[in-house]
Amino acid sequence: MSLTDRHIAALMRQIATQNAIELVHPFAELETFGSLVYLAECYGFRYESVRLVGKHRVMHVQLVRDAGPWARQRAAANSAAFPDPGPGRPVPGMYLGSLTPVPEVQPEVDVITALIRHDALGAAANRKQMLAIGWGAAVLFLLMAVLTGKYAVLLPLAVLMPLFMLGSLRINAARRAKLARRLTAAGCTPVRDAAGLERYVRPVPQGF
Fold it and tell me: Vertex 203, ends 202 and 205: CA angle to 5°?
């Protein structure tokens, strides 16, 4: 079974048995997540959020079953059109045997992918944590310089670590701003989540 088939099989099992889905594919591209989210939404789910887990910041994409009437109608229509979806069989919006969107749904998958990327950048940009790491490293290098006398090596590191963290935050903010403009142009609405982080909500689809 190919990697694509395994992704689809795992997703369809969760759709059939769970009201909440978590996609965890450490080496998958964001476009793959976008296609999988699109498939899940075809069967009555909606994208919820992104978490970055562990020291390697593995991405977990979360979806929940949508109780809205349009979502139920969309799920019913796709269940009728694709009664036996799965590996090697047709699934909504994708070329057979792949997670490559057909041209008609490519724009929607692109918006989903941009939304996932925007939320992942937000999850990665924990300003307090990054600044604490930067300043903590600076203090550590200063102490090491005093203890070892290697000022020429350690003092530049003490200065560079906070600057590196600040630079990373600025780059992250610029990337999120670019994605925010793209999402706004696609009709998405900015909102604040419980943590005060800016996120975007897509308009309710009108078709199936």
Answer: 110
